[in-house]
Design brief:
This protein is α/β, with parallel strands linked by helices. Helices cover 39% and strands 15% of the residues. The chain has seven helices and seven strands. It has a seven-stranded parallel β-sheet with strand order 3-2-1-4-5-6-7, with helices on both faces. Helix 5 links the parallel strand 5 and strand 6. Helix 4 packs parallel to helix 5. The longest helix is centred in the middle third of the chain and has 29 residues. The radius of gyration is 18 Å and the shape is globular. It starts with 16 loop residues before the first strand and ends in a 7-residue tail after the last strand.
Length: 258
């Protein structure tokens, strides 16, 4: 069967280089493992070098770059290092993110700005630098932004205006870049998870009141399991989604449907 007609082969990432940010724990670590299993050469980036090195030791063909994406100087350097070390870049998963969970009447502007730097500015700059490299190489590529259902709908229970604003902006940035770069062969899409166990959501899981709130307000009646993001990640990162750009896919158990 020709590769273009093989529905399974189109989900493979053999020969492709994938950068995953925020890969030292939680969903980012899972994303790195999934892309590695699909055949990609994975570059993992985060602040905690020891965790990255432990992850790399378990992957097939990977290396780590320790960096803080809140620092603008690290973003261009990160993409440059990926390209210099591997020869090209094909996939970027913009997963790194921070919260500023404080009532909007009390949140410090420094915390608000940091959320914007990490959750919005960093994904834009990484996408821009990667797109430049992808276009110059004539290979095209896929950028997958990790947004949130809190970038699609409001929420009166968890007070985090900075997170919601940054993720909402990331959703529309995804539309804009997807449309702008479409003819260059660079696709830009996003995933909007709802409630999944991770380091960031750790205070919610294990707390019965919070878990009850998730179950009550999610049409499927439960939180998501990490593996339930695998399929959409592989779809958007691979040639299986070659005619898809500028979209945000909620993976939310129906949260945004009601």
């Amino acid at each position: 069967m020709d590769a273009a007609d093989d529905p399974v082969a189109r989900f493979r990432l053999d020969g492709k280089v994938a950068l995953v940010t925020g890969a030292s724990s939680g969903l980012g670590e899972r994303f790195a493992r999934v892309l590695d299993a699909a055949g990609a050469r994975v570059v993992v980036a985060a602040r905690r070098a020891e965790r990255l090195e432990a992850l790399v030791a378990e992957l097939t063909d990977a290396h780590a770059v320790a960096c803080d994406l809140a620092d603008p100087g690290t973003r261009t350097a990160l993409v440059r290092e990926v390209v210099e070390r591997t020869g090209h870049i094909d996939v970027v998963v913009n997963n790194a993110g921070v919260q500023a969970t404080t009532a909007s009447t009390e949140v410090a502007m420094d915390d608000f700005r940091r959320a914007m730097r990490v959750n919005l500015e960093a994904p834009f700059e990484l996408a821009r630098e990667a797109a430049r490299a992808m276009i110059a190489a004539g290979r095209g590529g896929a950028i997958v932004n990790i947004a949130s259902v809190l970038g699609l709908v409001g929420n009166g229970v968890i007070p985090d205006a900075a997170y919601a604003a940054s993720k909402g902006a990331l959703v529309n940035l995804t539309r804009q870049l997807g449309a702008e770069w479409a003819r260059s062969g660079v696709r830009v899409n996003a995933i909007a998870p709802a409630w999944f166990p991770s380091e960031m959501t750790g205070t919610m899981f294990g707390d019965e009141r919070s878990e009850t709130w998730i179950r009550r307000n999610t049409p499927m009646g439960r939180a998501g399991a990490p593996h339930e993001l695998d399929g959409v990640l592989l779809f958007l990162a691979s040639d299986a989604s070659s005619y898809v750009t500028g979209v945000t896919v909620p993976v939310d158990g129906g949260w945004t449907a009601v």
